[in-house]
């Protein structure tokens, strides 16, 4: 009999080198379960779970060892040498990929750079493009069929599940023997995720709870109580019901129509909402409909709850999250703007967790939320500069939000905190691309603004030997500046040439003219270098031998359209 918790999975994931959360990996696990279900690989999924438990219990010996870490070392060594793998070795590599998928799906916030954008935890649709199998890709990826919040007691849940079973029974009749028609159903709250599957011929359900593995078959009459118990609720429960299929499902349009019709018959009562808003004593439970709705951007439900009682939109769940925090974390524009319209001051109010919705917007770099929330700018206008949004964005190197803030308030790029440092100073200590220096320049950044300690953004870039940054700064600065002398002249000149080469002709020509007329910082720096080479005697200075003349000649050679040299 398999263990009834996630402990074996989490323990083995860590041995494989993954940072599995000790509090659970339910969202990632159910995401991977959905991918398996949609391509008819449930049996393979169950076999993988069984192997994981056997490995965890040290019931398998490989090359004389039961130590999973040693097994992995030996197998990965074979992979590096391109040696042929045995069936067991392939299964071990399959578990490695399986764990990678769980890690990525459950902790999307950690892998934003890899994903290229913010993706909500276990967003099955979007993640299918990243961690879905080749079989998922061949079927066009994953599409959402239906998504709706449920709130109510066991009696209401039984009625809901009966209605859902009728829709699924009718769907199976319509789908017949057609391929690519599998559905996957997830039940999702902010704190837990489950999977259910209806078996019409048996009037029973398959129920997958990561805390109660393996998947078990449950009579229809018992499922409601199992769900409420799994969510650690007492009487009333609140969660999102999500149904997925593959894009190439030939019945996609009609099944969506079926679920749209199914959606029309339920309302949330004030009594239900009140019961589901009370905290439970269980730390891992206590889901609320407002939190579920905010997490999924369900503004219709949020509006309905506001009409019933506005306090539902401010209550904290057992993890300390308010609905506005969830909307901010997951980047739902319509939801966050609606919630802000109801309780505007909550945007910058730190909860017991120590952060505000705006903090989460910055943390997740939700640049698309900055402009819609601009009408509430007076809330943070009076904050100390070091606590202002743009300083927080710069400190965390959240460039999307930072640029969005600059679009609304360009002068903020040069505002200084109590130490005389600007957001640009902070960015110079982070890891950014040279293109960000261009963006800052376009917004009027002063790269020579000195802090109380005499530090400038330019000097910070020089100290880090970021010559591509320095070149762009000097090209965009006016000439009347004092330029530090401790620079690698050859590296800086090469960086400038590389940058100029990357520009459109018209932009390049403007910079070249600025260099040759000494009307930008780079031209002045070259000229100062040349002047420094003058001999202390009264001999005439030969211009054609100076760094300024040599660089101007190189510009003419590489970019013939450049103007004539002016000294």
Automatic annotation (TrEMBL):
Question: Which keywords are on file for this protein?
Answer: ANK repeat, Repeat
Give me the segments passing through the membrane: none
**Pfam families from the entry?**
Ank_2
| UniProt protein name | Uncharacterized protein
Family matches, as InterPro entries: Ankyrin_rpt, Ankyrin_rpt-contain_sf, Dendritic_Spine_Reg/Scaffold
The opening ranks of the lineage are: Bacteria, Pseudomonadati, Pseudomonadota, Gammaproteobacteria, Legionellales
Cite the SMART domains for this sequence. Answer: ANK
Taxonomic source organism:
Legionella taurinensis
């Amino acid at each position: 009999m398999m263990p009834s918790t996630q402990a074996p999975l989490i323990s083995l994931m860590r041995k494989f080198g993954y940072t599995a959360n000790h509090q659970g990996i339910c969202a990632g696990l159910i995401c991977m379960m959905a991918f398996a279900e949609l391509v008819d690989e449930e049996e393979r999924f169950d076999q993988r779970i069984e192997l994981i438990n056997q490995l965890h219990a040290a019931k398998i010996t490989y090359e004389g060892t039961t130590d999973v870490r040693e097994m992995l070392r030996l197998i990965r060594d074979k992979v590096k040498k391109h040696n042929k793998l045995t069936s067991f070795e392939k299964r071990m590599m399959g578990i490695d990929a399986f764990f990678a998928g769980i890690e990525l799906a459950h902790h999307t916030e950690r892998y934003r750079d890899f994903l290229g954008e913010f993706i909500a935890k276990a967003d099955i649709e979007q993640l299918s493009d990243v961690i879905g199998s080749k079989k998922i890709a061949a079927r066009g990826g994953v599409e959402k069929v239906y998504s709706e919040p449920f709130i109510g007691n066991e009696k209401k849940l039984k009625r809901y599940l009966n209605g859902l079973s009728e829709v699924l029974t009718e769907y199976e009749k319509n789908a017949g023997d057609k391929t690519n028609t599998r559905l996957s159903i997830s039940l999702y709250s902010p704190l837990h995720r489950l999977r259910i599957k209806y078996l019409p011929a048996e009037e029973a359900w398959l129920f997958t709870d990561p805390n109660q593995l393996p998947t078990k078959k449950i009579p229809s009459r018992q499922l409601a109580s199992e769900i409420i118990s799994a969510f650690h609720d007492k009487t009333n429960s609140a969660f999102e019901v999500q149904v997925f299929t593959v894009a190439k499902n030939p019945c996609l349009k009609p099944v969506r129509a079926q679920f749209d019709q199914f959606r029309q018959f339920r309302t949330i009562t004030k009594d239900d909402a009140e019961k589901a808003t009370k905290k439970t004593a269980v730390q891992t439970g206590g889901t609320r409909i407002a939190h579920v709705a905010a997490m999924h951007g369900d503004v219709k439900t949020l509006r309905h709850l506001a009409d019933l009682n506005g306090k539902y939109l401010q209550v904290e769940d057992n993890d300390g999250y308010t609905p506005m925090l969830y909307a901010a974390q997951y980047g739902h524009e319509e939801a966050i703007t609606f919630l802000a319209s109801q309780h505007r001051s909550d945007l910058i109010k730190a909860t017991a967790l120590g952060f505000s919705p705006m903090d989460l917007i910055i943390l997740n770099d939700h640049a698309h939320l900055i402009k819609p929330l601009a009408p509430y700018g007076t809330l943070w206008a009076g904050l100390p500069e070091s606590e202002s949004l743009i300083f927080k964005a710069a400190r965390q190197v959240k460039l999307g939000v930072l640029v969005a803030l600059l679009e609304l308030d360009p002068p903020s790029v040069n505002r200084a905190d109590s130490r005389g440092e600007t957001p640009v100073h902070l960015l110079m200590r982070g890891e950014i691309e040279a293109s960000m220096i261009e963006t800052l320049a376009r917004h009027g950044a002063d790269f020579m603004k000195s802090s109380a300690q005499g530090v400038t953004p330019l000097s910070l870039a020089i100290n880090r030997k970021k010559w591509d940054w320095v070149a762009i700064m000097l090209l965009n600065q006016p000439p009347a500046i004092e330029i530090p002398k401790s620079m690698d002249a050859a590296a800086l000149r090469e960086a400038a040439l590389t940058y100029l080469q990357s520009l459109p002709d018209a932009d390049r020509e403007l910079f070249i003219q600025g260099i040759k007329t000494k009307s930008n910082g780079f031209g002045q720096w070259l000229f100062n270098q040349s002047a420094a080479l003058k001999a202390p005697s009264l001999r005439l200075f030969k211009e054609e031998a100076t760094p300024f003349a040599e660089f101007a000649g190189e510009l003419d050679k590489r970019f013939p359209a450049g103007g004539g040299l002016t000294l």
